């Protein structure tokens, strides 16, 4: 199925050429979902640290810095994964059609 790719691009209906790709990427397997979960966890843990350090430690600037660092790390890993592990040739619709054909022929 997906093999080495973790994400597939969305393709806008009615567009032709390179401009047909949307601005989104959909996870193909557990690796893509893990990257998304890691990004969400980095954002949530950064917000929690910012709240704890800012409110209880009275160091709001340090809390903001921690949040920014975690958000940049999580976002950077997400962008790296989408940029390097996305299938440039096939869209999510094509992967779904392959899965449907495999299910119908296997049943």
Largest sheet features: 3 strands, mixed
Helix and strand element order: EEHHEH
Cα(first) to Cα(last) distance is 17 Å
Count of DSSP H/I helices: 3
Structural class: alpha+beta
Question: Strand fraction band?
Answer: 15-25%
Identify the strand order in the major beta sheet: 2-1-3
Low-confidence stretches: none
Number of strands: 3
Mean pLDDT figure: 84
Q: How would you sum up this structure, described in words?
A:
The chain crosses the membrane at residues 34-56, 62-83. Keywords: Membrane, Transmembrane, Transmembrane helix. By secondary structure, this protein is α+β, with helices and mostly antiparallel strands. Helices cover 63% and strands 17% of the residues. It has helices at 30-56, 60-84, 92-106; strands at residues 7-11, 21-27, 86-91. The protein has a three-stranded mixed sheet with strand order 2-1-3. It is elongated, with a radius of gyration of 19 Å. The model has no long low-confidence stretch (mean pLDDT 84).
Can you give me a brief rundown of this structure?
The protein has 107 residues and is of the alpha+beta class. The chain contains 3 helices and 3 strands.
Summarize the topology.
Elements: E1 7-11, E2 21-27, H1 30-56, H2 60-84, E3 86-91, H3 92-106
Parallel strand pairs: 1-3
Antiparallel strand pairs: 1-2
